[in-house]
Amino acid sequence: MPKLTLYDWQQEDADWMMGQNSLLANDCGLGKTLTAIEAVKQNARGPILVIAPRMVKEWWAETIRTQEAGLVGVCQAAGRGIPWDKVAQWGNKRPLAWVITHPEAVRISYQHMLRINWDIVIVDEAHRFKNRKAKQTKALWKIQSRRKLMLTATPYGKSPADMWALLHYMYPRTYTSYWRFYDKYVAAYKPPGQQFSKVTGGKNLPELAKEVSSFYRRRDISMLNLPPFTYSDVPVLLNPRQEELYLTLVRDLYTELLGTEIILQNAMVKFLRLQQCALDPGTMNEDFPQYPLDEVPAKVEWIFDWLNDHPNEPVVITSRYRRFVEK
Questions:
Q1: Which domain holds residue 161?
Q2: In the predicted model, what is the mean pLDDT of the chain?
Q3: What angle do CA 233, 237, 240 make, to 5 degrees?
Q4: Which CATH number is 143's domain given?
């Protein structure tokens, strides 16, 4: 992957981000990852923590290496990657060490993170920390640093109250009361005979925009004169069972092409092989207790993320494995 060059507006965003704790809410596809890396590269004074979904941790690591932004280590579950008991020593000794982890690890292992004097904390897909009552959100609030950078294309959905947990992390002395923020910016009513209010949207939004304008920035993709989209291969982390299946599939296909006897298989046979790989219960931690539940496979992670990002949309999920669905 060649070193990437920032557009002028990306460089402008990078310079702006390091002026204060900030929330960058640019549209998807506008390079928030690259922008944040450039901001940190220019201003970091110590170790950096990146909290990103499992599916993009390796993408973060690859981009950091490509941009020559410093040493990088990925913390994973089940003892792979850099073990948390060594991260503190590694991070504190190397001024520009990047440590990449995921939201679930924040909930489970935040005590280890507290042992490091983080210079910058970057939270990718920050809307996943919008629930102020969630354990992983409360754990995030305990991780302090000189600068906090939040990245998300969807800072809130129907309710501006979704932003409060992010604002509280960035500026805890300013955003002290959730209900004060809720009453000021959330439009809701209580149906007759109901105990709880129903949110209908936001209110006083121009006032909210003015309030957060110094540390909140959003660029709409339609506002920019961009070249045609480019496509990149994004590395995805596999659990041990997935990796075993994938390598078996790749090896078999290579054998067909490189073996002394070439075996021609029709498209249906290859399709069935891919289907078997995709449906193997090991890819969903079903019937494989040796793989911890903390190691959520990539396709299951995607389902969870989609459900969290679309809480009000009806959805039907089918699976051949009943016990997995019931979990």
A1: 8-223
A2: 80
A3: 135
A4: 3.40.50.10810
